[in-house]
């Protein structure tokens, strides 16, 4: 392969990566992917002796690094807001996020039940997630919905809910959670937050 052709490929790759970064809804992913694209562009600029291109993208790399470090240092405030099945905000949230919910839970068709456990996950007092579960076998709870709004899917809401709030569930006699992996993306999410596959369902111990 000729050197000039190789340089062109590097330039195209950098352009594609930067373009992909602009499609990211998560700010964290946007910064990460944009950093990679800018780093490749920096290399490209040096290789073809286009130093203004290299300097500009090197600055973008530093800017992305700065904000990624700031995001890592930031300590978000999390809380749970429990509501009843009669909550007026619940159907409003479900309607607003209907398309996103169907993406991960295509079979979700919720009929409120007074016995359901309904928790909004608040991040800096903004409702970013919704958890709905029903009682199952003794000591077990069936997760019907665990949805997080775009832009907040960095696993922190899930870790808060399932790890830090485990004592809350145990105090109610719940020692295990069960969830159905509705889609490949949902199954991957469940595995990343500590659920293990057993037959047709995923389980997470709270003991």
For the record, the CATH architecture of the largest domain stands as 3-Layer(aba) Sandwich
CATH top level of the largest domain is: Alpha Beta
Distance between the termini: 58 Å
Count of separate DSSP helical elements:
8
Q: What is the element layout, followed by pairings?
A:
Blueprint: H1 3-21, H2 27-47, H3 51-73, E1 78-83, H4 89-96, H5 98-104, E2 117-123, E3 126-135, E4 140-148, H6 156-164, H7 166-171, E5 176-179, H8 184-192, E6 196-198, E7 201-205
Helix pairs in contact: 1-2, 2-3
Keywords:
single chain; 207 residues; alpha+beta; Aminopeptidase; 2 domains; 7-stranded mixed beta sheet; 8 helices; 7 strands; 49% helix
Molecular structure report:
The chain is an alpha+beta fold. It folds into two domains: 3-73; 78-205, Aminopeptidase. It is 49% helix and 21% strand. The chain contains eight helices and seven strands, in the order αααβααβββααβαββ. It has helices at 3-21, 27-47, 51-73, 89-96, 98-104, 156-164, 166-171, 184-192, and strands at 78-83, 117-123, 126-135, 140-148, 176-179, 196-198, 201-205. A seven-stranded mixed sheet has the order 1-2-3-4-5-7-6, sandwiched between helices. A hairpin with a 4-residue loop joins strand 3 (126-135) and strand 4. The longest helix is centred in the first third of the chain and has 23 residues, at 51-73. It is elongated.
């Amino acid at each position: 392969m000729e050197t000039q052709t190789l340089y062109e490929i590097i330039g195209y790759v950098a352009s594609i990566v930067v373009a992909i970064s602009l499609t990211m809804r998560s700010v964290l992913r946007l910064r990460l992917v944009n950093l990679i694209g800018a780093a490749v562009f920096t290399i490209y600029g040096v290789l073809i002796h286009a130093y203004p291109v290299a300097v500009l993208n090197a600055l973008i790399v530093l800017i992305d690094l700065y904000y990624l470090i700031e995001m890592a240092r930031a300590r978000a405030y999390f809380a749970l807001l429990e509501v009843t099945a009669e909550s007026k905000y619940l159907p409003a949230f479900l309607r607003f996020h209907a398309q996103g919910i169907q993406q991960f839970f295509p079979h979700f068709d919720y009929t409120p039940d007074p016995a359901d456990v309904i928790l909004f996950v608040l991040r800096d007092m903004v409702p970013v997630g919704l958890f709905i579960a029903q009682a199952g076998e003794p000591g077990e709870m069936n997760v019907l919905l665990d949805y997080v709004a775009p832009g907040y899917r960095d696993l922190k809401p899930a870790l808060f809910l399932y790890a830090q709030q485990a004592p809350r569930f145990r105090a109610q006699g719940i020692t295990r959670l069960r969830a159905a992996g509705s889609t490949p993306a949902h199954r991957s999410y469940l595995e990343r937050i500590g659920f293990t596959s057993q037959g047709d369902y995923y389980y997470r111990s709270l003991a």
